[in-house]
Write a structure and sequence with these properties.
This protein is an alpha/beta fold and 260 residues long. It has one domain: Metallo-beta-lactamase, Chain A (4-Layer Sandwich), CATH 3.60.15.10. Helix content is 20%, strand content 27%. The chain has a seven-stranded mixed beta sheet. It has a seven-stranded mixed beta sheet with strand order 7-8-9-10-11-12-13.
Length: 260
């Protein structure tokens, strides 16, 4: 099993639009370092047998899939319905072509409800166009395309986000993006993961996201093998951050591949 970090940036990406003098805003990130150029977060898991699971459909999805030569998906999971995690959903349309049926999709019940309101045409078809995705509640799935899937709800400020644990080929990958505190359910879910990909917006505390100390705390209490920091903003320079974290902690970048 392996995981590809399709995007590693926060909701505005890096660099951010609207910098001074009409220039891109790189913040503290070195613009000469390609790994500081970050699109919105998503991951792609691939089993040894070749099954592919996408987590989230960010607004940069088309460019991410093209950059990583991904032209087929077997299922999609969503962490929550915030725009940077789901508003690229239309980019799934070409991946529906040639399939006998819609792409299987899964999310927590509240995310399902809100996404059905917003993207009804995706899940029910419209004007002769086929259904793109069959959206179901996470509670109906434990096995998907050869992956065992477990999940928990995580606090995300006033909202919630779903944390996932995927297991295949005797290995485990945890995905914890967009959380603002550590819960018992998260520790139980992510404990002993071979790879834990974790939200790490910035160094200072934030009301809806994990900061560096919280991210490292989750990795420590869960005793993860390798930790990957993602959802990074413009204050998190790749080289500077890499030099300041423990040896088993990696800083995510777009296109990064990690195999447990």
């Amino acid at each position: 099993m392996k995981v590809t970090i399709l995007g590693s940036g926060t909701s505005t990406g890096v660099p951010r639009l609207g910098g001074e003098d009409g220039k891109a805003d790189w913040g503290l990130c070195d613009p000469e370092e390609p790994r500081n150029c970050r699109t919105r977060v998503a991951i792609l898991l691939e089993s040894e047998a070749g099954s592919r699971i996408l987590v989230d459909t960010p607004t940069d999805l088309r460019s991410q899939l093209l950059a990583n030569d991904i032209h087929r998906l077997d299922a999609v999971f969503w962490t929550h319905d915030h725009a940077d995690h789901c508003h690229g959903i239309d980019d799934l349309r070409p991946l529906r072509y040639g399939r006998a049926g819609p792409i299987p999709g899964f999310a927590a019940s509240e995310t399902v409800r809100r996404m059905r309101q917003r993207f009804g045409y995706v899940f029910a078809g419209q004007h002769g166009y086929p259904t793109l995705v069959s959206l179901d509640n996470l509670d109906v799935v434990r096995l998907c395309e050869g992956f065992r899937v477990d999940h928990t709800q995580m606090p995300h400020g006033p909202a919630q986000s779903t944390g996932f644990r995927f297991e295949s080929d005797g290995k485990s990958i945890g995905y914890a993006t967009d959380f603002s505190e550590i819960t018992r359910g998260m520790i139980d879910l992510f404990y002993g993961c071979d790879v834990l990909i974790v939200d790490c917006l910035r160094r200072e505390p934030h009301p809806t996201h994990a900061h560096l100390a919280m991210s490292l705390e989750l990795a420590d209490v869960c005793r993860s093998g390798t930790t990957v920091l993602t959802h990074l903003d413009k204050s998190m320079d790749y080289a500077t951050l890499s030099a300041s974290v423990p040896e088993n902690v990696l800083v995510a970048y777009d296109g990064m591949v990690v195999a447990p």
